[in-house]
Amino acid sequence: MPVHADRIKDIADIAGQRPNQLVGYGLVVGLDGTGDQTTQTPFTLQSVMQMIGVLGITLPQTGTQAQLRNTAAVMVTAEFPSLARPGQQIDVTVSSLGNATSLKGGTLVMTPLKAADGQVYAQSQGNVVIGGARAATGGAATSVNHLSAGRIPSGGIIEKAVPSLLVDEFVQLDLRRSDYGLMQKTAEAVGRRFGLGTALPIDARSLNVRVPTDPLKRTAFMAELQNLEVAPVSGPARVVLNSRSGSVVMNQAVQLSPSAVAHGNLTVRISQTPTTSQPLPFSRGGTTVTTADTATISNDGKPDSLISVPSGASLDQVVKALNMLGATPQDLISILQSLRAAGALRAELEVI
């Protein structure tokens, strides 16, 4: 059995069995004076009038506008799980749409949730859970965490199921990452267990698997199929840089060629010095090997600020040297982008 192997259920999805997004518009009531200011959010007042009108309540036409400090208009979102059935409960997220200062202590009134096709697939209602607090004294106020959004655990009930695919001779598996090497190893793992011809690769992402049509045999087959282990395949070299925090994450395939970079008052120079390693005298089977010692030097233009990283410098050592010199996240982004454009950084650069 391969060491550190991945299961098929962790690297591939069954085509047609995917979640869907649901969204709805509703009202949260029962707030402690932290709701929408209806003079600035007229849609909240309009929604309340329509709701109580459906319940048989008619307000007199006095010409005055009601002030609803305990009500807030919200957007309700949820994820419709794959193969969900009517009666199943799901979690929903409630987010303020107007200018309410807090949804803490509020209750969501029954809200229909629709999918992209405009049909209602779930209903949501319940008490909103907010993981925060707000305190005010005189003119000063302080809050902990975000109070304008919360969740309702098991607050949605599935009302309609998504039509399922018809039982077919083949089931299509879609890899979460397009890779011909990973596809080849997946097809080999399925073939070794269930026989040659069971797995038919389509391209670098899709794979057709021949399955039994009998329901009992099909369930057992799919359970075993998803638990098959596939030897991992190294992905493409990639560097991910977070522009907000300045964090840099890279995989082991990232390589850096000799180069020199100057950015403002920061200077980075990467060089390689050939070295020769010879076998000991009278040794057998030894060969002379020539390697390259890599050094990274950074300078911020100040006296006594020369930093040397000896032997085997890599991108993480360059980033560490720049951080020691006080490089900002924007400096890191610019330098890495320049290295990538010059061909010195042999990896994909992704900025998030």
Briefly characterize the structure.
The protein is α+β, with helices and mostly antiparallel strands. It has helices at residues 8-11, 42-54, 180-194, 215-226, 315-324, 329-342; strands spanning 6-7, 12-14, 20-29, 71-80, 89-96, 107-114, 120-127, 133-137, 140-144, 149-158, 170-175, 199-201, 206-210, 229-230, 238-241, 248-250, 255-256, 259-263, 266-277, 289-299, 307-309, 345-346, 348-351.
Element layout with pairings:
Layout: E1 6-7, H1 8-11, E2 12-14, E3 20-29, H2 42-54, E4 71-80, E5 89-96, E6 107-114, E7 120-127, E8 133-137, E9 140-144, E10 149-158, E11 170-175, H3 180-194, E12 199-201, E13 206-210, H4 215-226, E14 229-230, E15 238-241, E16 248-250, E17 255-256, E18 259-263, E19 266-277, E20 289-299, E21 307-309, H5 315-324, H6 329-342, E22 345-346, E23 348-351
- What overall form do the CA principal axes indicate? flat
Taking pLDDT < 50 over at least 5 consecutive residues as the criterion, the unreliable ranges are 292-298, 303-312
Report strand order across the widest sheet. Answer: 3-4-5-10-7-6
% residues in beta strands: 35-45%
Provide the helix percentage. Answer: 10-25%
